[in-house]
Amino acid sequence: MAEKRYAGLSFDEAVQKYAKSVLTACIVRLGNPSDADDCFQNTFLKLYRKAPDFSDENHLKAWLLRVAINESKKHLRDNRRLISLDEVRDIPYQSPDDLSDISWALMRVEPKYREVLYLYYIERYKVDEIASVLSKNANTVKSLLKRGRQRLKAIYGGDDNAQG
Q1: Is residue 155 part of a domain?
Q2: One domain for residues 118 and 62
Q3: What is the Cα–Cα distance from 126 to 121, expressed in whole angstroms?
Q4: Share of the chain above pLDDT 70, in %
Q5: Which of 19, 51, 63, 126 sits between 20 and 30 A of 8, alpha carbons compared?
């Protein structure tokens, strides 16, 4: 029996190629590496079990990111009584010496903005691609990007009034 292929990649190749993107998407949403690991595993488990057909590697990557984000949302919903991300967000972060690394600031932004900012700036998706991955309207994504940028700017500038 031939090994299942995912847009021309074996399962191991798909995991190796997209592991960093999927794990980062989970961490961005959850803010907790151990919870992100669980969602990461669930994402690739779904890929293995469902074995969908993909037209190309971009389709595979978008599918993996969508599943990772949905798994992260499900995890938050199922574990909401433990600790909220707002409480985590209020933990004081210190700016790193290298201001080109925005990950510290990104983790202080609300998850709905964090997701679109991550997909836009880190994964280099276009607005319409982000809309497809998140199942949102493109204009909604543009609004989230605009507000998310304002919040990032406020965090870099130290203006905490833009948080609310």
Answers
A1: yes
A2: no
A3: 9
A4: 79
A5: 126
